Amino acid sequence: xxxxxxxxxxxxxxxxxxxxxxxxxxxxxxxxxxxxxxxxxxxxxxxxxxxxxxxxxxxxxxxxxxxxxxxxxxxxxxxxxxxxxxxxxxxxxxxxxxxxxxxxxxxxxxxxxxxxxxxxxxxxxxxxxxxxxxxxxxxxxxxxxxxxxxxxxxxxxxxxxxxxxxxxxxxxxxxxxxxxxxxxxxxxxxxxxxxxxxxxxxxxxxxxxxxxxxxxxxxxxxxxxxxxxxxxxxxxxxxxxxxxxxxxxxxxxxxxxxxxxxxxxxxxxxxxxxxxxxxxxxxxxxxxxxxxxxxxxxxxxxxxxxxxxxxxxxxxxxxxxxxxxxxxxxxxxxxxxxxxxxxxxxxxxxxxxxxxxxxxxxxxxxxxxxxxxxxxxxxxxxxxxxxxxxxxxxxxxxxxxxxxxxxxxxxxxxxxxxxxxxxxxxxxxxxxxxxxxxxxxxxxxxxxxxxxxxxxxxxxxxxxxxxxxxxxxxxxxxxxxxxxxxxxxxxxxxxxxxxxxxxxxxxxxxxxxxxxxxxxxxxxxxxxxxxxxxxxxxxxxxxxxxxxxxxxxxxxxxxxxxxxxxxxxxxxxxxxxxxxxxxxxxxxxxxxxxxxxxxxxxxxxxxxxxxxxxxxxxxxxxxxxxxxxxxxxxxxxxxxxxxxxxxxxxxxxxxxxxxxxxxxxxxxxxxxxxxxxxxxxxxxxxx
Length: 687
Ligand code: MIG
Description:
Layout: E1 2-7, E2 31-34, E3 39-44, E4 50-53, E5 67-70, E6 87-88, E7 91-95, E8 100-105, E9 110-114, E10 121-126, E11 131-136, H1 141-152, E12 165-167, H2 175-187, E13 194-197, H3 218-227, E14 231-237, E15 240-241, H4 247-255, E16 269-271, E17 274-277, H5 284-292, H6 295-298, E18 304-308, H7 318-332, H8 339-351, E19 363-366, E20 369-372, H9 373-376, H10 380-395, E21 402-405, E22 408-409, E23 417-419, H11 427-442, E24 448-449, E25 451-452, H12 461-471, E26 477-479, H13 496-522, E27 528-529, E28 548-550, E29 554-556, E30 566-571, E31 575-580, E32 586-591, E33 594-599, E34 605-609, E35 613-617, E36 631-637, E37 644-649, E38 664-670, E39 673-676, E40 682-686
Helix pairs in contact: 5-10, 7-8, 12-13
The structure holds ligand MIG.
């Protein structure tokens, strides 16, 4: 059951899709107090309570014990002492003495003190006095999660090729660099479905332009690559360069489509292109216009996009920069600046980096009224990606286009996925990636993933290999790295066969992973889950933060420590361990319930097949389009005399007749062998 309460006069974020009545009684579980400038929600925490949720943020799967904030920020150091990353996902499930979920729908800053100030208390505070509050009760964690997902609408579904391996780097400068990556991947016998174009493909960082010196014929390049099974995926930034004669700028100014200052002039921020205006994507008309611009790239054969800098990130504002210069100039005239002024100057310069104090200086036009950005800050990225999503739906209604975003708010999952932004090449960020995935799934962001290998800092071959071994399970599987750091394509570290082996496993697992993704999307389910969702009665499961359930059949236990030859794994019940090197090269072993140390060398992947379940796999291919999914090798974990069935979802991966019953095929396996409802499928059974 979902109960909706309203406080003040909330901005319509369009996070939800169900039209529920607003109740007038007081909410269950939570004590809500409306104050002049905020809403304060309190809940006494029981010792046994575990808190799941908050989507993209730092720390563990259980969010208890820290203070988090929903405040979309461009912060490229994801330290565990941060409170907020790029997104704002105000949904939590309390699991314990009472079990319920709640969603605070407020697009301004919201803080979640989850036992930080007082260990026995949760205090959620909004920065404005307006919010819708939803409280969800149900039979189980899974049921609560499903109801919440029904409330916020069906998750975005990408084209199937977007489940292939993607190679990215901020620093591929020109066509020759792209061709070089494609050639070297092929030479190393490593599958590849996408190469990403970062900001350097644009002319002077102008959205929807191509630098013709670097990419003289983008359409030709895209066509060449596609013939090899590789798609190009360009980046789009939020800020639009201020430049006379640049059509996007001119049209935006002419039609009043940019965010405004209080005096009605266009707000100016500085990002990669220098001075920019920000498209007012919260305004439907401006959103429609900005979205329509993606056509420029669609027309050149592009089938996917990533939306960046949409918190929005602002490097500086001109008045603030000028003020800083003035102060520093005054200091420069002093004979002895003195230590206090020295530090004041350093703080001043550092503060230029913090865009948050600019968020109260610009405005959106909503239904003819000006709304201060600060009051709706967290829905900007959502609406930038919605702009693209809505326009793509209109421009190419029958074709899926890849789309994911850096910033997001609940509801954005209907239009695109996300990547988790600028992580670092740290083992702890591989672990963070494991923690983030189930939380992201709770808010519908199924198509998501992190920069594999790490974005900032220098990676190492073993870190990348272990990260890939987890990344083969994340729907978005992309290796991305920042300018200035060590090259981290999988052929840069020697032993390329090991990298090829791990990445090929992704392709072998795709019949299963894609089926599980599609079923999760179409049935509001969870592709990634913490163990407690399926084993709620086993108290040990709430302690496990480094193993995940992926789909219905398997549990994974990634290695995320340097120099480890394996790891300790907790099994809530006996399972069949598959230590995979390839679909045909593996060890299998029954493992009893409990704690075990399981060996796992570099290049190997641990999969635990649950009892009574099946895992269909295929021979690997060099791209998703080339996969042969008619011949499947099906692993089964059956007791004697038992039969099991599995619903395989297979479609063309590109059109949108998702619900067509023909896509659902049932595989049945017993001791005597297996069969499939689709007789064209040939199964090899592995009992
Ligand atoms: O200020 O486009 O998170 O993935 O490579 C940095 C350059 C801007 C941030 C993104 C990152 C991307 C980078 N961008």
